[in-house]
Design brief:
Largest sheet: 5 strands, parallel
Helix content: 55-70%
Strand order of the largest sheet: 2-3-4-1-5
Shape: elongated
Structural class: mainly alpha
Strand content: under 5%
Length: 784
């Protein structure tokens, strides 16, 4: 049935008593947000909003007139039969109609002032219980002479009342609140209901007692309250747990599973799970029944798993079945080498990762990380990099194995045995690459991608002084300082920021790149930032930070400030460093609203001044003196840290001894010096030259580079670095471009102070006015 179509009366009645959660969600789509709304509230709504409620009210009234007489007839017939057959005292029909009249008389009042759904429940309750009470009042006093029959009558009446209320209370509660009660709440409600019904039976007993001639009656007559309370409370709990219905469903579930298990008939669509969403007690073989159909009928199996999430008793069955299917599918992706799908958790039974959901399963995230490393190893050009990725994948598998030991979740149990096979698969891949790497020179150099603690940390060199300076600035909480990491493009700013979690272990470093995050509004910026902060806190410190609530588009900053205050308090003794890379893009993000940009800067200023556990580090190319005054006004006590090119000694170490085990004399000192002269120590170009040198040696099966190799690889460097060189030129003003062109062609020029200062700040010229990157001059001559 389409969600836009109203259910028929028969379907409405069925879903109300058997699938109330499904019905409630369906009506919510149709416009019925509050199932227990009063008539006064309905008619206070706009005319268009009243239409779905009027349709809903008609269905509810039709249900009332269909179900109430049925309930009343069954209950009174049972009680009347017992009275006539056992006690010998027939109940008069008019007594039963008293309860019916009371129930229908109270229904309009409850609907008018309280709620239409409550009126339905109270109508059935008053009709049944009221009828029972009125009938008991008509018991003859002579019945007191037969205590056994009298007590049996109270037991039966209490049981009927408890069963009826238990049957209607469960569905109505789920339908109204869209959630099930837990077992403790059901027990407490059972005690309360039993007490109320016990009071009813006590009143009826006193009525009969006062009619008796002989007041010296059997002493057991003094306990009708306890008898009625006990019986009605127990029956309420049993029916609220749907025990009588569960017995029938238990037999039916066993039958349909056996038909498919032993005779091959497709019977999953007949499983009671699909039709009763209120079962509190588990049914047999549901998970196995799902597994039997998962391969041939995956859509039906998914529907049953989804339905188990609505049924309290079958929830674990669904979790176990899904866990087994996910573990099986993950193992198939691993053994088939489908590492992209493994990293993205793509599959029939896997949740495709879109970003990093806040409620993502930690086991699946670890598996995704394993797949990411394996895919990186699969596409890596150099065996050395493949081995690094495989080692990281192996470490992640080991960590996952250790975490599964104490994890009692179904997925942990299902996946634990599969990890042994994963160990063997990764071991074979490592052995294959070990044999290959022995025949070639390892290539640890990385050009064009930021270095991270996981990838490339061994070639991160020459930034010790900067790290010491950052540590000093962060160590003193009494000083309100902000930090600006400034330097030209491709000089290692992003690598430094990404390495901070490993270099500053006492500080929670949150890296946020304004260029990589798809942000089109201030609200999106704050939501992305908050998600990154919570994600990093969970990953690095196992800290559960509160998420940022949904932000109003017009004025999101007030909620953001409150959230930052929460983070500042929860951090305790921890320092949280918010690192904004490409910070200049903030102006473009708020370009349409100067007021919001000023509010953001005010938020930054308040954080710098008052939130001492939060520190702000911005990274970019532009100096504050070249930006709008708004930056200087709000980033008080800003401490600028300049990051430049590598010193000659560090560059030599990077080229000649990049990692432990790198073959000596592969890049001789003379070749390294030549590369340094051509690049001026620019980190990106150093890595690029070195990478191509090693690649060239492996292609020619040689062990040592020569000066001729530097000339050979320079053509490849010029092609590969074209984007960097062009971007460098385009970011200069016309005067700067002209000066670089003249220097590239060997012309002697006289620099004015402004141009010299600008080019020197971008590290494009030396103190003596020459090109600091000679290979840039070569590119200008050939490509510009």
């Amino acid at each position: 049935m389409s969600l836009q179509a109203w259910p028929s009366l028969a379907l409405f009645i069925w879903q109300l008593w058997m699938q109330p959660m499904l019905l409630s969600r369906h009506l919510q789509v149709l416009g019925v947000e509050n199932p227990d709304i009063s008539l006064l509230k309905i008619y206070s709504l706009p005319v268009q909003a009243q239409l779905p409620y009027r349709r809903y009210l008609l269905l509810l009234l039709a249900t009332l007139f269909c179900v109430t007489p049925l309930f009343a007839g069954i209950c009174w017939w049972v009680l009347a039969w017992f009275s006539h057959a056992i006690i010998g005292s027939a109940l008069s029909v008019h007594d039963c109609f008293y309860g019916l009249l009371v129930g229908f008389a109270l229904t309009p009042l409850v609907m008018l002032f309280h709620g239409v759904l409550t009126a339905l429940m109270l109508n059935i309750l008053f009709v049944v219980v009221g009828g029972i009470f009125m009938s008991m009042l008509e018991y003859p006093a002579s019945l007191l002479d037969r205590p056994t029959f009298y007590l049996a009558e109270i037991y039966l009446a209490g049981g009927i009342a408890g069963l009826v209320l238990g049957f209607i209370d469960g569905p109505v509660h789920v339908f109204n609140y869209r959630r099930c009660c837990n077992f403790t709440i059901i027990l407490l409600r059972g005690l309360l209901i039993g007490s109320l019904f016990g009071l009813v039976f006590a009143l009826a007993h006193f009525r009969i007692h006062h009619l008796a001639i002989d007041f010296e009656i059997h002493k057991s007559f003094s306990h009708p309250f306890l008898i009625g309370a006990m019986m009605s409370g127990i029956c309420y709990i049993l029916m609220r747990l749907r025990f009588p219905i569960w017995l029938l469903e238990y037999l039916w579930a066993s039958l349909v599973y056996g038909l498919q298990r032993w005779f091959g008939l497709s019977t999953l669509h007949l499983s009671p799970v699909l039709y009763d969403h209120l079962s509190f007690l588990p049914l047999p073989q549901i998970d196995r029944h799902i597994l039997l159909n998962a391969k041939q009928r995956p859509i039906l199996a998914k529907q049953v798993i989804k339905t188990t999430q609505l049924s309290p008793g079958q929830y674990q069955h669904g979790k176990h079945a899904l866990a087994k299917l996910q573990a099986q599918e993950l193992d198939e992706l691993m053994q088939n080498g489908q590492f992209v799908d493994l990293a993205q958790l793509n599959g029939c039974w896997l949740p495709r990762l879109v970003g990093v959901p806040a409620n993502a399963n930690s086991i699946l995230l670890s598996v995704s990380e394993i797949g990411r490393y394996l895919q990186a190893a699969h596409i890596a050009h150099y065996a050395y990099h493949r081995l690094q990725h495989l080692a990281q994948a192996q470490n992640t598998v080991n960590a996952l194995c250790n975490s599964l030991v104490t994890d009692s979740s179904p997925l942990a149990y299902a996946l634990h045995m599969k990890l042994t096979l994963w160990h063997q698969t990764i071991k074979r891949m490592r052995q294959k690459n070990q044999a290959q790497i022995q025949q070639e020179i390892p290539n640890p150099f990385r050009a064009g991608e930021p270095l991270t603690p996981e990838e490339g940390h061994e070639v991160f060199k020459g930034r010790a002084k900067l790290i010491i300076k950052l540590e000093k600035l962060l160590s003193d909480k009494r000083q309100s300082r902000s930090i600006a990491l400034l330097g030209p493009r491709r000089c290692g700013k992003t690598s430094l920021l990404k390495m901070l979690p490993a270099l500053l272990p006492d500080t929670l470093c949150v890296f946020f790149d304004l260029q990589d995050n798809p942000i089109d509004s201030p609200s999106a910026f704050f939501q992305a930032l908050a998600h990154r902060v919570c994600q990093q806190a969970e990953k690095e410190r196992r800290m559960q930070l509160p998420p940022l609530p949904p932000l109003p588009v017009s004025s999101p900053l007030q909620l953001v400030a409150q959230w930052l205050d929460q983070i500042n308090q929860l951090a305790g003794t921890q320092q949280i460093l918010l690192c904004f890379d490409e910070f200049e893009r903030l102006e473009t993000l708020f370009s349409g609203n100067r007021r919001q940009l000023l509010q953001l800067m005010g938020l930054f200023r308040a954080t710098i001044q008052h939130r001492r556990n939060l520190r702000i580090l911005i990274s970019g190319v532009a100096s504050f003196e070249t930006l709008d005054n708004i930056w200087n006004d709000h980033f008080i006590n800003v401490q600028e840290i300049r990051i430049g090119y590598l010193e000659a000694r560090t560059a030599l170490e990077l080229l000649m001894r990049p990692v432990v085990g790198f073959p000596p004399h592969t890049i001789p000192k003379a070749v390294a010096v030549a590369v340094i002269k051509r690049t001026g120590g620019q980190p990106y170009l150093l890595q690029l030259y070195a990478s191509y040198l090693v690649q060239n040696l492996n292609e020619q099966s040689r062990k040592q580079a020569t000066l001729d190799d530097v000339l050979q690889v320079e053509e490849r460097v010029l092609d590969e670095a074209t984007y960097y060189f062009r971007n460098t030129m385009q970011n200069l003003n016309p005067a700067g471009k002209t000066i670089l062109e003249q220097l590239a062609h060997g012309e002697k020029i006289k620099l004015d102070k402004t141009s010299k200062r600008c080019l020197h700040r971008h590290l494009l010229i030396t103190e003596c006015g020459q090109l600091s990157i000679p290979v840039l001059g070569e590119w200008i001559r050939e490509y510009w």
